[in-house]
Amino acid sequence: MTTALEIAAHLDELLRVREIPDYPPALNGLQLENRGEIRRVAAAVDFSLRTVEGAIATDANLLLVHHGMFWGGLQPLRGRSYERIQRLVTNDVAVYAAHLPLDAHPQLGNNALLARELGLDATGTFARFQTIDVGVRGEAEIETATLVERVRAFARRHGGEIVATPFDAGRWTRRWAICTGAGASSETLREALAAGIDTLVVGEGPHHTAVEATDQGLVVVYAGHYATETLGVLAIARHLEERFGIPWSFIEAPTGL
């Protein structure tokens, strides 16, 4: 019999949850306990009413997410916030969340897996946050248009679409970096330029980053926050099946962002 506490202890160690810094609302680890044996896992990018109901519909009693129950900050348990909690408790569903510990993991993390998905070989890390690097980087010899089309195909598989800053026909990507989720910021652009990166793949970012990148000759591909963060939870769910023999399902709930 495998409990939520046993799974949480394993994932905490695997993902180095206690060592990896993060934003306070992430509250990485087991966010809601339940009773008894875990019989099925539901993996999802976001904690939401859709993913809670999806977990219940698949008879899962552990919901594994990237953005957890408190991602939106403190709020009273009223209305839809109450409904989410009420459904979880009534159906005895536990919740485990892993944000930056999952983004940064060298084998199971969103960034490492997205590089592999795009046929890129990561040889270094990127996107500094406090004491860690969240993203990955490497070298390639690929036409930028070809890389952009690979990113587009990936995003569309998860209900998304991409936006790429302008680039000339025949341009080649030779030094690339990836930072999934909200990966485009003034800080990551400065880091990319300092490292000689010519193509940056991110989930999303503010408008000014596209303006600045274009002026600097850096191509940024905005591949969607949701799409770029599907890979990690899928990998963790597969890992739990291999480790504990627990079946799993993925609850696809794209946000359009």
Q: Give the strand line-up of the largest sheet.
A: 5-6-8-9-10-7
Total tally of structural domains: 2
Uncertain runs are none
Shape: elongated
- Radius of gyration from the alpha-carbon trace, in angstroms: 19 Å
Number of strands: 11
Derived from helix and strand composition plus strand pairing, the structural class reads: alpha/beta
Helix-strand pattern: HEEHEHEHHEEHEEHEHEHHE
Give me the secondary-structure topology.
Layout (H helix, E strand, L loop, with lengths): L3 H11 L14 E4 L8 E6 L2 H9 L4 E6 L11 H12 L3 E4 L2 H4 L6 H8 L6 E6 L2 E12 H14 L5 E2 L7 E8 L6 H9 L4 E4 L4 H10 L2 E4 L2 H4 L2 H14 L3 E3 L7
Helix pairs in contact: 2-3
Description of the structure:
By secondary structure, the protein is an alpha/beta fold. The chain has two domains: about 5-100, NIF3 (NGG1p interacting factor 3)-like (Udp-n-acetylmuramoylalanyl-d-glutamate--2,6- Diaminopimelate Ligase, Chain: A, domain 1), CATH 3.40.1390; about 105-230, Udp-n-acetylmuramoylalanyl-d-glutamate--2,6- Diaminopimelate Ligase, Chain: A, domain 1 (3-Layer(aba) Sandwich). About 35% of the residues lie in helices and about 25% in strands. The chain has ten helices and eleven strands. It has helices at about 5-15, 50-55, 80-90, 100-105, 110-115, 145-155, 185-195, 205-215, 225-230, 230-245, and strands at about 30, 40-45, 60-65, 95, 125-130, 130-145, 165, 170-180, 200, 220, 250. The strands form two sheets. A six-stranded mixed beta sheet has the order 5-6-8-9-10-7, sandwiched between helices. Strands 1-4-3-2-11 form a five-stranded mixed beta sheet, with helices on both faces. Strand 8 (about 170-180), helix 7 (about 185-195) and strand 9 form a beta-alpha-beta unit. Helix 2 runs parallel beside helix 3 (about 80-90). The mean pLDDT is about 95.
